[in-house]
Amino acid sequence: MKYLIGLDIGTSSTKAIAFDLLGNIISKSNIGYPILNPKPSWSEQDPDEMFEAVISSIKNVVNENANNGNELLAISFSAAMHGIIAVNEKGKKLTDCIIWADTRSTQVSESIKNSEIGHKIYMRTGTPIHPMSPLCKITWMRDNMKEIFKNTSKFVSIKEYVFFKLFGKYVVDYSIASATGLFDIYDLAWNKNSLEVAGINEDKLSMPVPPTQIFKGMNKEYAYLMGIDVDTAFVIGASDGCLANLGANAIKSGDAAVTIGTSGAIRIIADKPKNDESERIFSYILTEDHFVLGGPVNNGGIIFRWFRDNFSQIERATAESLGIDTYELLTKEASKVTAGANGLIFLPYLLGERAPHWDANSKGVFFGINITHKREHFLRALLEGVIFGVYSVGKALEETTGNIDTIYATGGFVRSELWVQMLSDVFNKKVVVAESYESSCLGAVVIGMKAIGLINNIEEVEKLVPIAQTFTPNIENHEVYMKTFEIYERLYLKLKDEFVSIGLLQK
Hints:
With about 500 residues, the protein is of the alpha+beta class. The chain contains 17 helices and 23 strands. The chain is globular, with a radius of gyration of 22 Å. The protein starts with a strand and ends with a helix.
């Protein structure tokens, strides 16, 4: 049997998933690593640990398939966006990978956003000015890590770091580049205004290449470790968010993909970029002919994990004794409560927020607590708050691009029927869940198939995505949610200034 590997370098883990030529999963490996928080606003990961996860996950999948006599055709990559690593002239890290959740550059981002050039940069790059952006992170490093900045040979993402170690070349796909705030999505070249603001030239960045670019002739040592031939085709692929749309088959007009993993996002695919004058949404590149429009939220599954890790010791012990997932118990608890959580509202901004507010100062809030509220109300409100965050982006997206008809749900949250039903009820739209929720890896494989000539166009993904479940909205719940959401929206506006004040007490 012939197969391809979709390799996703994510925030929580690196996944290597083997797909046959019909899109069926035949094996997988998942290797996790921690998020490091050396200071309150800092979020980093060790790129060497992530690289080891790449090598090990591929090795695990290759070994399993070799034992079954299967033939590997290509490995295609997906990766998280917005991360940046400073490396020296030998490619050794000078910093850890500063990831999307890092907000140390908040003041820098506000300064750029409020400058005359800020709006011009957004309109050419498609990336809102925000601390997530490598543009802001590099600018912050220039001012606050002067020695490291001076000694930096390249600023790279985790995928670039991996490809340099494997092939000795600094290359970046258009898709990852388009999420940096440094790349002109119209000219497919580094943006001069962005470079000027960051205080760097093109030499400090990798060479942009199409997502279908193939690399062969890798480092023999790593080829041996993975158990593959040095001339195995490595397809550079695209970003995880863009590939999630492709892997979910959300590529037609009126289709949107909602992904909730560690963070979350809602996205549509269009044939050209379309930026919002209010700077609420992004325009990223999937391929030269496909642009992904939408917005990310910082606070997705990480919110659920925060509750599990800090307030669910009993449930964790119970789940372990029963041999089930803790989240299953917590979801069951939340399901005891009706829509709206009896008037308890949660602003899920534990990590600040990206779309649509792009406000790194925002904070988490439980509002409306009264004497009748129990633990299950807080759980329900928490899950609803995450969906409200996505819905607020969806509203901005529809205002900019037109109506959404069907939502394709992807990411780890689809394992919770309660959470997916909430999504359908809040949006008042049909939600489709594919048999495989590993949409970023499948999207990477589709790009890989096109790169090596197995398919003619990415629209052929439709043949590879069987539908597992369809959810339809509960109108009564939708009406409750809309009343709740009105308060949710006003709360942010009323508390915006106070978030800054309370933040000063949390340094």
